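Human: I'm a chemist; would you kindly supply sequence and structure tokens for a protein?

Assistant:
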Amino acid sequence: MNASAELLKELRIDRKAGSPPPSPSRRGRWIVLAIVLLIVLAGLAWLVLGRERPIAVTTAPVVAIQQGGASSSVLDASGYVVARRMATVSAKITGKVREVMIEEGMRVEEGQVMATLDPIDANAQRSLSASQLEAARSQLAGLQAQVAQADAEAGRLQALVGQQLVSRSQYDLAIAQRDNLRAQLRTAQRNTTVASDSLAIADLGVDNNIVRAPFSGVVTAKAAQPGEIVSPLSAGGGFTRTGIGTIVDMDSLEIEVEVGESFIGRVQPKMPVEATLNAYPDWKIPAEVIAIIPTADRGKATVKVRVALKTKDPRIVPEMGVRVSFLESAPPAEAAKPQGVRVPASAIVERGQKTVAFVVKDDARVEQRAITVGTTLNNDRQVTQGLSAGEVVVTTPPAELRDGNKVTETP
């Protein structure tokens, strides 16, 4: 009975309590909000403290090399593609441009019309010269008729003088008139020649209003527009053009390289060269030394070397950057098959008694890769296994760099 009474007391409602206890649903909402807040705070803490910070590194591309190029290079240098035959075409006279017939990148042949000037003045001068020539020819024809008549009259008087039918003085007067007409005829002939030469000069003046290509080539710049004034000499400040356009003979392209004075002794005329354009690092172009310019640049301590390209290709254009390797001997004909790759020597390190390089992947993480190195190529090394052309490696890897680390490239 006592136990039952105690149980009944526990079930009795206390009416004296100040407020009812919180409902279970309201308490659950507070618990859910607390859990969400803890999750958000944990995420922020991971972003700030737990996220991996990338390591700043410098990188370099992996470049393919040709068979034989790794062992025969005695000197590497940088230069530019230049054109030995290039001209900024201008008119011979000062005039207003009437029509321009060229555009950048257009191929022109020798003698092709590039532009025309307004020929009003030249045409007027030619018309005047033509009229003067016609007048001289008309005067010449009249004098020729007079001389013929004077010759006939002198012949008749000579016969009559022999027969003593006319006086000698009359005959002498006819001879004098004939000689005077002959002198006028010679003057008229010379005037006709002068008028003809003047017409030829006027024709040249008309032709000077036509600008033609001096040689075959490609237009690299268009400098004038219709309506502008062009002149072979600078006149009128910025209101006068001095050229119509620039033409480059693509067959005259070659390489100019500046070699340091201390290394110029390694370069000889007719020396084989392997050229690589900066725009096409996997394309090896055969070349040859043309000449060593016999003067040095005092400020830069370099000597200029001319190199001829043995391959003509539309991809080679003036002012392109190029790297050349001077070879001891020409590479063999079968040198088209790639033989390994070349990387900067600073990209090769020793880790765990292995020769490795760190390759940067697409996700900005590095992969430690074991490699097999070959010969030394000046500041580069040949790698025969472990790397492929086109990949990117880390140069001078930091000691803390490990496989899988995230990196960022420093400028």
About this structure: The longest strand covers residues 284-297. The two ends are 91 Å apart (CA to CA). The chain has five helices and 25 strands. The mean pLDDT is 82.
